[in-house]
Design goal:
heterodimer, A: about 230 residues, alpha/beta, four-stranded mixed sheet, 5 helices, B: about 475 residues, 2 domains, binds iron/sulfur cluster, 4Fe-4S (chain B)
Chain lengths: ~230, ~475
């Protein structure tokens, strides 16, 4: 991503639909007065940012690190070869006793378990919030994984669906391909498209609001299982 | 006009602190909580060998933001508008409240769900909405505890840090029924049960909510991407399920570029909850067809921030990413708790931010920069290297100036000299040792009476206790320093 040089602010800005235009002018005017000590010729990029921090804190085996760090959040992680993946997924679902499963559009058909005793809900037409709330779980792919922080990022792409699908069901089973795992935060952000709706998930929902004791499971899915599909 | 940042009727810090210090339950709760989080933070920041380099980058990015705030805001406005959002500007709290109230009214709704947000607490939004007949439901567990307990937040990250589990159980049993689904009769004080009660209580509100109000942790000027960092998933609920989303954000929260998040997404969770990453971070850019709110409003709030920006020393306080690390390491905060500060922003950052946002003419706010021992623990902990002791001393001088009027008083000169001394730990250490000796030389009966020369008028009006043989800072380092905690 490049940062382009700007005109001095305000000269070419559009007038927005919302808010009193007076407040906009007032605030921008106050800012310029407040910054009287900043030379007019200075551009934002002239303020130097030292970038000597590491691009990655992952060691040699970042896939193993990802598995370890996700598990640290008390999520269950399974590593599987591509041809075993479908069996592993079916195993997780039955171990969790999931009876009705939300499967977003674009989820790879070859990974879908046989529908034996499992009701599959598709989001076409869109499921109501009540239906989602009552569903036993949701099965998705992801956009990116982050090894160092044990994070999964969803971007509402194929196999992930709109954000509500992974929020209301109490159980989330997420499939991560090893090639999707970035070593650390900087690499992950480079791989993402910022304008898509992004959800970074690090373990199941939790709170530390009661005596700073971590308790899993408040509003998001209380159980998170992750299956890593190893790619050659 | 009340400023909302500070709570009307709160006594100045020394008096409020005395009351708080008498509350043993409060001190026990606080000591336990801040001790836990301090250890967690040190463990995860210690994992990154380049933590200092990340802090330097974070500080520099905030400087880049603040020195060109106007240009970043205009770029942000452009990007958000292009992505289908609407940007509003609010010069003060009243204007922000008016904008939000009108936006909610336009939807025809009388209820909104809220994600924890310092900015909306600062402007007193819930109260303003209530006046217009709109109920605002806090959905963050700690905020819910505060709201149901008819209480005030005492910490910027864990607003109910002053409450223990038994107190929380009583609040839930007493008040949940009035606001919606009641707590079960057999509710225990196990954190897991309390969290479950909150889940059930709030779920029905989420499922029917049509309007949400949030704050924002950042907004990238180049892409128009806005982000909320959270743990529980209540943020995701509010940001995803309703049709209308109104986000109130302080103007200083803008970042030059989306890529800059590579620094802040490492600094914030580790400094804040002491985790490698918080459970959930949501980012959105305008609106997305078929996913989430179809109507997005971003309210850019000044409310004293531009005044803060105008102070070349004080402006660094605007770089704060609200991680709360400085509260958790502060010896004063640990003993008095957040309420004594009488402000939405307690602790060391509150002591520098509050008087700047509301002005040092406010007596209560002006007392806050004195609520510190200048031990420097906050500066060491701050992920964006805000030199809080430097700003504290600078504001003490300003508070004294304000009291004395335009003629520089000896008190002011002393404070200015103190600013010079205190801005360097080495000089401070030297001056404290010297002060301990020098103070003893001029003292009589354990008090310092009249001093000669320019200090005469100052010492005329007060007796100063003789400096302790060991400075507070030296004592603190010896007995309670971070390495020991
Ligand atoms: S001042 Fe620094 S340490 Fe304190 S809350 Fe802000 S960012 Fe965190």
């Amino acid at each position: 991503m490049t940062e382009h040089a700007n005109d001095k602010a305000g000269t070419s800005a559009p007038v927005t639909a919302g808010g009193a235009p007076a407040a906009r002018a007032t605030i921008l005017g106050r800012i310029r007065t407040a910054l009287a000590d900043v030379p007019a010729s200075e551009q934002p990029d002239d303020v130097e940012v030292p970038r000597d921090y590491a691009r990655s804190h992952a060691g040699s085996d970042h896939v193993a690190l990802f598995a370890e760090r996700v598990a640290d959040y008390r999520a269950t992680v399974t590593r599987a070869r591509a041809r075993e993946a479908r069996k592993v997924i079916a195993g997780s679902l039955s171990a969790r006793g999931v009876k009705s499963l939300v499967v977003p559009d674009g989820f790879p058909a070859d990974l879908l378990p046989d529908e034996n005793g499992l009701a599959v809900l598709t989001d076409e037409p869109p499921l109501s919030v009540r239906t989602l709330d009552a569903a036993g779980g949701v099965l998705t792919t992801c956009a990116v994984g982050i090894a160092v922080t044990g994070t999964i990022v969803l971007d509402a792409g194929p196999g992930q669906g709109r954000r509500a699908l992974t929020l209301l069901p109490d159980y989330h089973l997420c499939i991560v391909r090893s090639s999707q795992i970035a070593e650390d935060v900087p690499e992950a952000l480079e791989r993402l498209e910022p304008t898509r709706p992004l959800t970074f998930i690090s373990g199941p929902s939790a709170t530390s609001d009661i005596e700073l004791d971590r308790v899993e499971g408040v509003h998001g899915p209380r159980t998170l299982d992750v299956v890593i599909i190893e790619e050659p | 006009m009340p400023d909302n940042v500070t709570w009307l009727g709160t006594p100045a810090f020394p008096e409020a602190a005395r009351t708080a210090l008498g509350n043993n339950q409060l001190r026990t709760n606080l000591r336990k909580a801040t001790g836990t989080i301090r250890d967690k933070r040190l463990a995860v920041t210690g994992e990154l060998a380049d933590w200092e380099q990340l802090r330097d980058a974070g500080a520099a990015l905030k400087l880049r933001t603040l020195r060109h705030l106007d240009s970043h805001l205009v770029r942000l406005e452009e990007a958000v508008t292009k992505a289908g959002g609407t940007v509003h500007w609010a010069a003060d709290a009243a204007e922000a409240n008016r904008i939000v109230t009108e936006l909610v009214r336009a939807t025809g709704q009388t209820e909104v769900v809220k994600v924890k947000s310092m900015a909306t607490a600062e402007i007193g939004l819930n109260e303003a909405l209530a006046e217009s007949g709109i109920s605002a439901y806090e959905t963050d567990l700690a905020e819910l505890i505060v709201q149901l307990g008819d209480d005030r937040p005492s910490h910027i990250l864990v607003p109910a840090i002053h409450r223990n589990r038994a107190e929380i159980r009583e609040i839930f049993r007493g008040a949940m029924g009035e606001w919606g689904r009641a707590a079960p009769d057999d509710l225990t004080d196990e954190p897991r049960d309390l969290a479950e009660a909150a889940r059930l209580h709030l779920r029905e509100k989420f499922l029917r909510a049509k309007v949400a109000v949030s704050g924002a942790n950042f907004a990238a000027a180049d892409t128009g991407t806005v982000g909320v960092v959270e743990s529980e998933g209540n943020g995701r609920m509010c940001l995803t399920l309703p049709e209308t989303l109104i986000t109130v954000m302080g103007i200083e929260k803008v970042l030059p570029s989306f890529a800059d998040l590579e620094v802040f997404l490492q600094l914030l969770p580790r400094s804040s909850t002491g985790e490698r990453m918080n459970p959930y971070t949501s980012m959105w850019t305008g609106t997305t067809e078929g996913d989430g709110p179809s109507d997005f409003h971003l309210v850019l709030l000044d409310n004293g921030r531009t005044a803060t920006l105008g102070d070349e020393v004080g402006r660094q306080a605007l770089g704060c990413i609200r991680c709360s690390a400085c509260l958790n390491v502060c010896p004063v905060y640990e003993r008095t708790g957040g309420h004594a500060y009488g402000s939405v922003y307690p602790g060391p950052i509150g002591a520098v931010l509050t008087p700047q946002l509301v002005g040092v003419a406010d007596k209560q706010a002006a007392s806050l920069p004195f609520a510190s021992t200048l031990c420097g623990a906050c500066y060491d902990a701050c992920p964006v290297k805000i030199n809080i002791p430097e700003v504290l001393v600078h504001l003490r001088a300003r508070a004294v100036d304000e009291k004395r009027g335009p003629v520089p008083s000896p008190e002011t000169l002393v404070m200015k000299a103190a600013a010079m001394t205190l801005s360097s730990p080495r000089r401070l250490g030297w001056a404290q040792r010297f002060g301990a000796i020098g103070g003893r030389l001029v003292s009589r009966g354990g008090r310092i009476g009249r001093l000669p020369g320019p200090l005469k008028r100052w010492s005329d009006t007060r007796d100063t206790p003789v400096p302790a043989r060991e400075s507070f800072r030296a004592w603190w380092q010896r007995t309670r320093g971070e390495g020991r905690s």
